[in-house]
Design brief:
heterodimer, A: 2 domains, B: mainly alpha, 0% strand
């Protein structure tokens, strides 16, 4: 005889549903400890009620005298447990316990896995797309930018990130346009693959000015005569307006929006430029939302990049 | 005279081996390792078949030296470069461990390719070993990703701009490219988050994945067996060329091919 099965006459308690309510009551007590006394009291009542019902159910066999109908039919000790089909008397269809447990285990496991995974997945994926872009950047007084000369200006794009966010812009004062100051402000990020483009001309390093304002350092190096810009990585070339003239870049250099605040030049959002017609203050800029380097923003190739992440 | 000694020696040996027996009785691990190490392989395999083990060794070297480097490396924009300089210049044998890790990375990739070439040329990727080829290709891809993410960590100009270009290259992929770029950078610009996530991917995620895939790879190797070279009569389905020749008595020229030990 199989020692693990006993003599098959063990007194199993009848199945009961009250533990479910008991568990809900316990859960309510714990939640009540956090939320407040009302929930706590409800939980205590539920626990007591269902606990009583559960105990009553389980002990019913001991309290009542066993009736002949309830007594299990004698099973010969040598006989194996009868197959389910024999157990299912009449039209009663039994759902196997093992199947039920299997489904519950997989289902509960899936739910727990989902509850744990979804927030973690959000934490993994979402931060790079939220709160992007940069704050407004004060780069100096209007007088610091001589007319029709590019000034190599470096600044912190995002002061919270520190020196690693130092970026360079080529800023040219175009003089007045309809009585308003006009500036050309080119990002030095090559629109091929993001290397730093350099001035094709002479930076006047001895005239470098460093200004520290509100703890933020801005460096300005005037240039003698910039004939355009060139990228050291793969040879992309741009003219004075940032138009591509040679090499692999797919569009013109990105630009910064700007505003004048208390007589000072402030850089705002970066945007992308397909091309620029004309020069200086009269330039006509084909402006698009900021796109990454190497991405087309006009023409048929732009269809490859229908959606841009938020900036 | 030497009659009694073996008895005592046997006893000592038994005592020494007792821990192994204890382990074997409870886990079967000793038998498993023995099975792995002393399993049957075809008689006509060559040095080419050792390239996989060589690549595994290179991976282990990378893992160990990487862990040691992680003792001293600081994945922060303000201290990463300085911590690398500290490892190279100040610490005892730091230059050696860093050099092993740096050059070992190339060795690992080269060995992967040589191993891959051997498997391809021997036709060892064919039924029933296709799945192992796929697993191997995944290991190669993850290995190259290790190279990409590890390249940023020295945080010098080469590392920084290579990563700028590399990430922007990914970002030019159609449709999902721009999003992929932002996920890699941890934002629209390279910054402190980029370095931290590259470090995490380089030292936790990818090595773990590679180690798991190597386990699967080895399991399949043991389960399916090692292939004979294509010129092997056995592999071609031709009858074996008869029983092996009787071992030669007396002096055998060292390194003589086909010489069999008794």
């Amino acid at each position: 005889m199989d020692p693990h099965r006993g003599d098959e006459s063990a007194n199993h308690p009848a199945p009961t549903i009250w533990p479910v309510g008991f568990a809900v009551g316990i859960a309510c007590i714990f939640i009540g400890l956090i939320l407040g006394t009302v929930v706590l009291v409800v939980g205590a009542v539920l626990t007591a009620l269902f606990g009583f019902l559960w105990v009553r159910d389980v002990t019913s066999g001991y309290r009542a005298a066993p009736t002949p109908a309830e007594a299990p039919p004698p099973v010969p000790a040598h006989k194996a447990e009868p197959p389910l089909s024999e157990l299912a008397e009449g039209d009663v269809i039994r759902y196997p316990r093992s199947k039920f447990l299997e489904a519950v285990t997989l289902g509960l496991g899936g739910v727990i896995g989902g509850v744990v995974t979804v927030p973690v997945l959000g934490f993994t994926i979402l931060p790079p797309f939220i709160k992007q872009g940069h704050p407004d950047i004060d780069v100096g007084a209007l007088a610091d930018f001589p007319e029709n000369k590019y000034v190599i200006t470096t600044f912190l794009l995002d002061p919270k990130q520190g020196e690693v966010s130092r970026r360079t812009a080529y800023i040219r004062n175009n003089g007045l346009l309809d009585g308003q100051p006009s500036f050309t402000i080119l990002s030095n990020r090559c629109v091929h693959l993001g290397c730093p483009v350099q001035v094709n001309g002479l930076p006047l390093d001895k005239d470098k000015k460093t200004e520290i304002r509100n703890g933020l350092e801005v460096d300005r190096i005037p240039t003698a005569a910039a004939a355009g810009f060139g990228c050291p990585c793969h040879g992309g070339q741009y003219d004075k307006e940032g138009n591509r003239t040679a090499g692999p870049p797919v569009r013109a250099l990105d630009r910064y929006d700007f505003m004048i605040k208390n007589g000072r030049l402030v850089l705002r959002k970066t945007y992308s430029v397909a091309k620029v017609d004309g020069e200086g203050a009269d330039a006509r800029i084909h402006k698009y939302p900021l796109a990454g380097p190497g991405q087309h923003i006009d023409g048929i190739e732009a269809w490859l990049y229908p959606v841009q992440p938020p900036r | 005279m030497a009659r009694r000694k073996p008895g005592r020696r046997d006893q000592l040996l038994k005592m020494a081996l007792y821990p192994l027996e204890w382990l074997e009785e409870r886990s079967g691990l000793v038998g498993g390792v023995k099975y792995f190490l002393f399993r049957k392989v075809p008689g006509d395999i060559s040095w080419g078949h050792t390239l996989g083990s060589a690549a595994l060794t290179a991976f282990i070297v990378q893992a160990v030296t990487g862990v040691i480097l992680a003792f001293y490396y600081k994945p922060d924009p303000n201290s990463a470069y300085e911590s690398i300089r500290h490892i190279t210049d100040d610490l005892t044998f730091g230059w050696l461990v860093r050099g092993m890790h740096k050059w070992g990375a190339s060795v690992f990739i080269i060995l992967l390719f040589l191993h891959m070439g051997r498997v391809f040329l021997y036709g060892a990727y064919k039924y029933p070993r296709e799945l192992n080829w796929i697993v191997g290709v995944l290991i190669l891809v993850l290995g190259m990703m290790e190279g990409f993410f590890g390249y940023l960590l020295p945080w010098d100009q080469t590392a920084y701009w290579a990563t700028v270009v590399g990430v922007n290259l990914q970002a030019t992929g159609p449709f999902v490219g721009p999003f992929l770029g932002d996920i890699l950078r941890g934002g629209s610009e390279i910054g402190p988050d980029t370095l931290a996530r590259f470090y995490s991917l380089h030292m936790l995620v990818l090595p773990g994945a590679i180690a798991g895939l190597i386990g699967l790879h080895l399991y399949l190797v043991v389960r399916l067996g090692v292939t004979s070279p294509p010129w092997s009569p056995t592999a071609a389905g031709r009858p074996q060329p008869g029983p092996p020749p009787p071992p030669r008595k007396g002096l055998v020229a060292p390194g003589a091919r086909g010489a069999r030990k008794r």
